[in-house]
Amino acid sequence: MADTAKPKTGTARSSGTRRRGRRDTAAGLAGETPDVLLDYYRQMLFIRRFEERTAQAYTQARIGGYCHLNLGEEATVVGLMTALQQRDYLFTNYRDHGYAIGKGMDPKRVMAELYGRSDGVSRGWGGSMHMYDTETRMLGGYGIVGGQLPLATGAALAISYRGGDEVVMCQMGDGTTNIGAWHESLNIAKLWNLPIVFVVINNFTGMGTTVDMSSAEPELYKRGSAFRIEGERVDGRDVLAVRDTAARLVERAREEQTPFLLEAWSHRMKGHSVVDPAKYRTDEQKDEARSEENDPIALFGARLSEAGILTDELRDELAASVKEEVAEAADFAENSPHPDVSTLFDYTYATPVPNESRRMPADPVFAE
Amino acid sequence: MSVITYRQALRDTLRAEMVRDENVLVMGEEIGVFEGSYKITEGLLKEFGPRRVKDTPIAEEGFVGAAIGAAMLGLRPVVELMTINFSLIAIDQIINHAAKIYGMFGGQTSVPMVIRTPGGGGQQLGATHSQNIELFYSFIPGLKVLAPSTPAEASAMLRAAIRDDDPVLFLENLGLYNSKGEVPDDYAQPSNDNVATIGRAKVTREGSDITLIGYSRMAMVATQVAEKLAEEDISVEVVDLCSLRPLDRQTFVDSVKKTGAAVICEDDWLTYGIGAEIAASIQEGAFDYLDAPVRRVAMAEVPMPYAKPLETAALPSVESISTAIKETLSAVGKRVG
């Protein structure tokens, strides 16, 4: 088991080890080509701007319901998604916009889903918490904490049943490690030798309850040991570290047909959801969560600049193209039609049977 | 035709579907090595092996959810929950996930799975093991709920449930497993295509004085009531609901229009129970035809006691249903035997 920095006693206050002043060499950048590195940088920046645009649209009441953003965990999202093969499956919790984009969904259609429009990835039936796309194998964001764990385990069972070589990645938040579904799913996954990687995103807080307040074992990556599941922790602010660690575990799950656990820690830059002012955090904690040294994009940008890969000119260019693409997504969403009310009964059942109710609220039960 | 038990009808049909379709697997507690608490899966592990007959840990939420996830990738799991009481531990997966995944993601993936589980009191199993809570699932759009009462229905409905692309809660009953009935000779053949129509009720016995409505074990009891009252010259029409969701209201409403009176017998509790929905539908669909208020005969509203005399008193019976029928008929001036 590796212990890569931070948590220990868990709260966002303890600063742990930092990567200040670290000098990146070609090896420090994992020997990657500038194109790949810049692509990661752009993807992270894209998620940042997409989420900021989402928050704006939410405050303008263009987006409804609950809305949870990936701000602060862009490196984790991009690192995890680039560790997967296209054929691999993904299940996430409700903080899913970045994952949907990272797994390959068209950001226009993700934004349209947020707007509840018919071009949305879930046809406007899911909203923020329920992005789904069969083609890119993102099998859903789930709004019930822990709900996705048994499902993801079952998807891995189906792969194993058919002798396939896909892997399932199941993302969740730190608070999820305390729910029954966590224990049942990890036990079943190990017992049945299923190819799945459980990923805990540790931002130190489930809504407002810290990991220390909720977890008797706050070293979350160790919590697979009760099921003999190997766990690792990674600095979730470091896109390359996340990618390399996740890719190693994903490939081991594929080869060895057994589950793994990965904990990625990073800071939640804003409240739990768009409407949460996070009053339970001290000013010091808020400053820490938003500081440049915890901002994965600033961190990675600095490394790329230092290595001479990201010039000021290129930075401006990328910023402009991202801004434009995000604006296009918002325009697309804005112009996508609302779902037609005549489709209200289209998705209750996959196999039509007699006597399905198609009654509108004031309709009589027996039509004349 | 041959005469077999409800248990055998289920077992042989399950086996036939496993032979027919490689995607069908069974999962549950004690279903493999132990061959099922009620022996519905007897012999399946020996025939199909542990890949297709999966003994699970005692983790209803975990394995029901795993079955849903496997169904999302195209398998057709048949999950056994030892009793419907244990479904409460899996209720988040059943209601928040199985029932929602097709609609919530805009029809992109279906969940072709079956949850088989027995209800039923009367076995001296006490308060936590004698409940009939099929109402919880019948309430939920996105689920289908079937409740067969005879071996023939059990076979045709299980086949329908397995071949259907939606999550089906398949309600069995402890009091029915040993009951016998006729089935077609080829009921156990994998090639058999005798598939029940989900969402249809049946008039299982014609009559003219009153309509008696039930499902699962109570549909069988209703038939016994009708036979007994026939001796007293009371003609009872029996409707077996068969499918609790979707609910075939037209069939029982048409029957009530013919007889002018109705009694509902149910193994669950009366307040907010399945019978409440049936009664409400009858008043809306056959108001002008009713000669008397609709009566419901249901379980006494207590946590089920263990002691036999108390348990027996709490359950609807042939006698209590007969009494309700006679009282209803005399209230409208119809003859009472």
TrEMBL record, chain A:
Residues 1-28 are annotated as: Disordered. It comes from the Bacteria. Its cofactor is thiamine diphosphate. Keywords: Oxidoreductase, Pyruvate, Thiamine pyrophosphate. One of its GO terms (molecular function) is pyruvate dehydrogenase (acetyl-transferring) activity. It catalyses: N(6)-[(R)-lipoyl]-L-lysyl-[protein] + pyruvate + H(+) = N(6)-[(R)-S(8)-acetyldihydrolipoyl]-L-lysyl-[protein] + CO2. Transmembrane segments: none annotated. Residues 43-341 form the Dehydrogenase E1 component domain. Its EC number is 1.2.4.1. The pyruvate dehydrogenase complex catalyzes the overall conversion of pyruvate to acetyl-CoA and CO(2). Heterodimer of an alpha and a beta chain. This is Pyruvate dehydrogenase E1 component subunit alpha. It comes from Nocardiopsis tropica.
UniProtKB/TrEMBL annotation, chain B:
Its cofactor is thiamine diphosphate. GO terms for molecular function: oxidoreductase activity. It comes from the Bacteria. Gene3D superfamilies: 3.40.50.920, 3.40.50.970. Residues 4-179 form the Transketolase-like pyrimidine-binding domain. InterPro entries: THDP-binding (IPR029061), Transketo_C/PFOR_II (IPR009014), Transketolase-like_Pyr-bd (IPR005475), Transketolase_C (IPR033248). Its EC number is 1.2.4.-. SUPFAM superfamilies: Thiamin diphosphate-binding fold (THDP-binding), TK C-terminal domain-like. The keyword Iron-sulfur does not apply. Keywords: Oxidoreductase, Thiamine pyrophosphate. This is Alpha-ketoacid dehydrogenase subunit beta. It comes from Nocardiopsis tropica.
